[in-house]
Amino acid sequence: MKLQGKTTVITGSAQGIGRAIAEVFASEGSRLVISDINIELAQKTADEIKTKYGFDTMAVAGNVSKLEDCETLVKTSTDKFSKIDILINNAGITKDNLVLRMSETEWDSVIAVNLKGVFNCIKAVSKTMLKQRQGRIINISSVVGQMGNAGQINYSASKGGVIAITKTCAREFASKNILVNAIAPGFIRTAMTDKLTEGQRQMLVSIIPLARFGEASDVAKAALFLASDDSSYITGHVLSVNGGMYM
Ligand code: NAI
User: Fold this and answer.
1) What is the pLDDT of residues 109-139, one digit of tens each?
2) CA-based R_g, the chain, Å
3) Which of 77, 111, 167, 180 could form a cystine bridge with 137, CB 3.0-4.6 A?
4) Domain range enclosing 74
5) 155 an active-site residue?
6) Residue 90 C-alpha to ligand 1 middle, in angstroms?
7) 246 falls within a domain
8) Which residues, at least 6 apart from 213, have a Cβ–Cβ distance to it below 8 Å?
9) What tens digit of pLDDT does each residue of 6-26 get?
């Protein structure tokens, strides 16, 4: 078991990639805090994972765009488990539009969740991890933050910003043995990509060398590597899980 005795907090983990990470981490012995804005689904996910793997799993409601919620998440987690070894900043949303048509609300809401949300959670957990003198932070970016994407100025800016946050925090926290890395998934089969039309799907598959979308479990296995002792000399890295779409 690669995460025996560890405590992991995962934002946006009621479903999709976050849930897949939770499952893989539970199967490797980690205790979990399933945090999501959708508390009913988060509670259901936490109950199912606890039943399946037997490790202590708790659901906590929270909107990552609010610093107060992130501070409550950290307090609730440390009150129960005394420590947080791993934070996965996974919560994210899309509100796509062409630049000319994008509203201020569409821009602000995506930046608030995807970019400020990562800052909020890192700020909230930093005191705990600095005191522990150890920790892992894994930020879920996107291939779109590396290469841009028409119709996603808000999302690509937020995900590019997540890479910059990752490198900054990796430098700031390295001396305290807190490793900070990012994963940049390509197109992964989840509720987020279910919104794509068949035409968009076919176009995307045509530019992915592996010629298919990835699975949430592909991202979860990369997260396990970055959370485990196997990656103890890696920080500030952006790990692509994209079928070769961007290299
Ligand atoms: P999803 O839509 O299936 O799950 C996102 C989860 O985040 C949901 O449970 C939702 O309730 C929660 N959430 C939304 N806003 C929140 C907030 N303000 N506070 C707390 N929780 C909130 O999406 P998916 O596909 O699992 O995405 C997870 C992460 O992976 C996101 O950051 C996304 O941008 C990123 N990503 C996804 C890709 C894909 O192809 N599915 C590709 C690249 C990155």
Assistant:
1) 999 999 999 999 999 999 999 999 999 999 9
2) 17
3) 180
4) 7-241
5) yes
6) 6
7) no
8) 186, 187, 188, 189, 193, 201, 204, 205, 243
9) 999 999 999 999 999 999 999
